[in-house]
What does this fold into?
Amino acid sequence: MKNTPPMGPSPSRVLGNAGEPTPPPLDPARLRVLRELAGADRACTVGELAQALGGHPNTTRHHLRALLAAGLVQVPDAADEAGPIGAGSVREGGRGRPAARYVVTPQGRRTASGVVEGDPAAEEYLALAGAFADRLAALGVDTSEESRAVGRAWGASLAARDVTAAGGGLPGQPREQVVALLHRLGFSPVVRPTPDRDDGREVELRTCPLLDAARRHPEVVCQVHAGLVSGADAAYGGSGEGVRLVPFASPGACHLRLASAR
It folds into this structure.
């Protein structure tokens, strides 16, 4: 019998195990490959990743070998067709054999999201955020506007920090910057085209750093997250308007509609 995942996202492993070592940071180019794969809606070949990233297939292949060796990506059918795959034995297809397709592992998705495991500061943040949600919910009134306003201020602050660090300008569109920010915050976003147009506005959030609090008080936590996206988009140069978050919308994800273009 096939197991159906629960509605909504999985928790982001911000806290992790106390004795678990923190992996070293990835090379930026390698992290781009990992994030591209984490954001794809299916397994990808070397050629597809190279085309999406605008690089040479040999460079992408080199990064994938390293990611395989680190346990951050895998070839799902490797055991069925070719046995175990090591760092130097990446299957690229060949005569009569399809090219290998790659997916991220759970560890790879956490790494792509930029969450830090075993960080005491993260534990304090989660405790404070949970207490904030509990307190607002206990007021017994509609706190959605207040929660969204808190999120907007938070998102604007985070985005302004990015803009300042970049010297006043960031490459790419505001939506791309918002998705990158969501990666860093631990939401594991996957961009989906809408049925009638491929405008990159539909996003699945596969993990949530505040999942327990969101399940208890979605009217608070999810509104904070919606406001965060709106505030960040505006600070990155977008309109900040039209953001809509549907909590626990499907098995394995919340659904986010990004802001309309300015």
Summary: The radius of gyration is 19 Å. The beta strands are 10-11, 73-74, 103-104, 189-192, 202-205, 207-208, 244-250, 253-257. The longest helix spans residues 144-165. The longest strand covers residues 244-250.
